[in-house]
Amino acid sequence: MEQRTFLKILDANLDRAREGLRVVEEWFRFGTGQAAQVAECKALRQQLAHFHTEAMRSARDTPHDPGTALDHPDEQRRTHPLDLLRVNLARIQEALRVIEEYAKLVEPALAEAAKQWRYRVYALESAATGSDLRQKLQKARLYLVTSPHPDLLGIVGAALKAGLPLVQLRDKDAPTRPLLDLALRLRDLTSRYGALFIINDRVDLALAAGADGVHLGQSDLPLAAARALVGPRLLIGQSTHAPEEAERAVVEGADYIGVGPVWATPTKQGRSAVGFEYVRYCRGHIPLPGYAIGGVDETNLLSLLAAGADRVAVVRAIMAAEDPARTTAYFLEKLDSGS
């Protein structure tokens, strides 16, 4: 009876992994035309099929399986291809982990194979979701933090078209439902241009919208708690205003930091400007991408670069620009030449 139970578990999870791989394979085949990933998905499916024995199939008892009647409302909801891919990749990884553990009891060779398959699925995940997020972060020198605006999507779209690599949705006062709707539209927009999408403060909205990460202030959810919720893959940024805060962000596992405010700014009322000294400190001592923020615009960008900054985050400089695309192009040109 015990042996039959193990076989049932392996049968169900081999099916689950193969089904998920087929969903991902179809996107590589018809959605992106990534031939190498199509071949990898096919190879993995064939290898799973090799271990899917007749004894496992014979142990199946679908009419008496209580799991077949269980469902979740989120199973019926997919907002964009990235959401669909992430769900199915997670399903594959979970199934392979179950196989790895239970196969140790009946088929050690399958357990070892499942361990290796999981690492290969991680590589597929990076390819399916637009390459590794941290590699994209390393290349991103300009960071737009949005402020509420009637034409927010139009402004962000123009900046993305001009090459903007990184966008944060920030709105402290908006109700949750409208903010989620806006986040989903921004997720779609940034995905079209291959840009990173971050949500300020709200880990729940970042997960619900399929964002690439969340940005936390000093008084927000602790970084370790946020990491436990979003997992190892998503990005977490941390606002910092002093050396000890930057050093703590490194220790706690932030992926990047905000450095500022360099100049006084209405988006950080009551916060004293840190000036160039803190920018220089972070550039010389903090091994994370650091975005100088706070009052940065076209009139002072060159002096900031001369002081040692190599990345900047802006709000009004683009959100209030007469020509957001031209302003974005200017910042990108100066940042690239400065680097």
Structural class: alpha/beta
- pLDDT < 50 runs, ≥5 residues: none
Shape: elongated
Average pLDDT number = 90
Q: Looking at the chains present, what oligomeric state does this protein adopt? A: single chain
CATH C-level class of the largest domain = Alpha Beta
Q: Give the ordered list of helices and strands.
A: HHHHHHEHEHEHEHEHEHEHEHH
Architecture per CATH nomenclature, i.e. the level-2 architecture of the largest domain: Alpha-Beta Barrel
Considering the protein shown, what is the CATH homologous superfamily of the largest domain? Answer: Aldolase class I
Q: What is the count of distinct domains?
A: 2
Number of helices: 15
Tell me the Rg in angstroms.
Answer: 23 Å
EC number: 2.5.1.3
Family: Belongs to the thiamine-phosphate synthase family.
GO molecular function, one term: thiamine-phosphate diphosphorylase activity
Cofactor: Mg(2+)
What does this structure look like?
By secondary structure, the chain is of the alpha/beta class. The protein folds into 2 domains: 2-128; 133-338, Aldolase class I (TIM Barrel), CATH 3.20.20.70. It is 58% helix and 10% strand. The protein has 15 helices and 8 strands. It has helices at residues 2-32, 35-51, 54-59, 81-106, 108-128, 133-139, 152-161, 176-193, 203-209, 223-230, 243-252, 275-285, 301-306, 316-319, 324-338, and strands at 142-145, 166-169, 196-200, 213-216, 235-240, 256-259, 290-293, 312-314. Strands 1-2-3-4-5-6-7-8 form an 8-stranded parallel beta barrel, surrounded by 7 helices. β3 (196-200), α9 (203-209) and β4 (213-216) form a beta-alpha-beta unit. α7 crosses α15 (324-338). The longest helix is centred in the first third of the chain and has 31 residues, at 2-32. The protein starts with a helix and ends with a helix. The mean pLDDT is 90. It is an enzyme of class 2 (transferase). Keywords: Magnesium, Metal-binding, Thiamine biosynthesis, Transferase.
